[in-house]
Amino acid sequence: MTEQATQPPTVLEGKGLRVRRGGVIVLDVPSVSIIEGEVLGLIGPNGAGKTTLLQTLSYLLKPVSGELYFRGTRVGSDVPVLEFRRRLAMVFQEPLLFDTTVFQNVASGLKIRGMKRSESDGVVAEQLERFGISHLSGRSARRLSGGEAQRVSLARAFATRPEILFLDEPFASVDQPSSEALIEDLQVVLRKTRTTAILATHDRTEALRLSDRLAVMMDGRILQVGSPDAVMNHPADEFIASFVGVETILTGKVVSRDSPSFLASVGGHEIEAVGDALPGETVHLCIRPENVSLSTNLQRDATSMRNVFSAKIEKITPIGLYQRVALDCGFPLVSFVTTHSVEALSLREGKEVTASFKATAIHVLRKNR
Amino acid sequence: MDLIVDGIKKAFWLLVTLDPEVMGITWLSLKVSGIATLVSLLLGISVGSVIALTRFPGRRIAVSLVNTGMGLPPVVVGLFVSIMLWRNGPLGFLEILYTPTAMIVAQAIIATPIVMGITLAAMQQLPKKLRLQIFALGATRLQMVWILIKEAKLPLLAAVMAGFGGVISEVGASIMVGGNIMGYSRVLTTATVMETSRGNFDVAIALGIILLLLAYIINAILTHIQQHERPR
User: Are strands A307-319 and A362-366 parallel, antiparallel or unpaired?
Assistant: First the structure.
């Protein structure tokens, strides 16, 4: 009981939500809830059903079955749809601004609610200031850059002081440097206003930066919900593991056990991992690329790590600040190395190196639980 | 050549002296076509929006009918309206055949599909998600439609121009249902036809110039609004 009392209340809850499109069920979510003050990150590849879920939760899309509860009252019967919609806001991938000035765009939600200009002017000015677009106030929405336009869209959404903010890939159509700044600003505003939000994105790093909880979606279903740490480091299955960025997933058989760790045979090599797997059991070993270190020193004794393998560099691909190094150790392995290290170690394709990773850095998925 | 030069000279004289008959004809033209355009805007924008924004059985047929209607031959409209308003026709009791009212009716029938078709196209060009965005901003259905119409205002101004341009220059229906009665139902186009057939080229040229000027002025005003409305 005391636990119940200290928990923040649920703002929005969906039960048994199903959406059908062309005879096919495209969304099947038995239960989902958004807690007061949190940012729930909805991640998954394109076509996973993130947008459909957002539109269903905002009642822009009517599900074939299921109910929506807003602060405990049922949407559509206890609370009218219009009233519900006037307590939320939505930002889409495209800014979808109206063909008028920036100021009028930000004011549009308030105008729709019948607010007088004398009252709304102050609110609009505050939002323009908050998103750093006060200087664009009188400009036509047609003459904005992608980043500026999305700022206007966000300001328009925040102007109505929504109780839930729906963000559907809000940075996907904004170019890189602008989206960086935009994410930072949004982070600040979300924290300051303590706005409850649900963010759909295909970008894991975006989700990690903004979310308090993560939900992973695939094929119209929510596969896992939990803290970012739980989802990223303890993915519930192979799909989630590969999606959240554990680049290497090795399948092996447990050969021996020496609590708390075990040895698994993978392609003729033995890998030590920490976990409860029993001999004879098939396991998936998830190794995140940032946990794999490379050295050109072939002395195995130089490190205390158990998992040390000779490897040949297959391919080096630059990704942002890092280089993705694909290795062949008799089994595939991926490592992220800083560009600086690639140069310092003079890594190149075909070169022989030593790859190592800690037994504790491996996330073990037990196949036959 | 004398014919043309004399014609133009006389035409300017008629214009400069504000010849009462010519002015009367001009005023009636403006009145009839203006009212007809207004009626067509009311009908065309509302019905066009409904067709654009709703799904119903037979919608495709409705859309193609509207598009066909955009090229409705004025003489056919004239024939249809004449039959309807004929003394013992279905609407003969109204007794409005050969009156400016009948001309307004015929011209509105010509302009409505034009306005409707342009409205349809303009509404369908707006991003689909815009409707969801407007609903997410808390709009009622009516507010949503109104905002969409405002979003489509530039192409809708084109609808006004096309509608008005279509009816002010139309002659077939006007002569059939209006009768080209002097001082009563004679408009610029019908008068031009008559004067030309009589060989009064000077008057015909004057009327033609006025017609061109009117079309130009109206379009210039609307174009100015359109360009001005497009915010910088």
Answer: unpaired
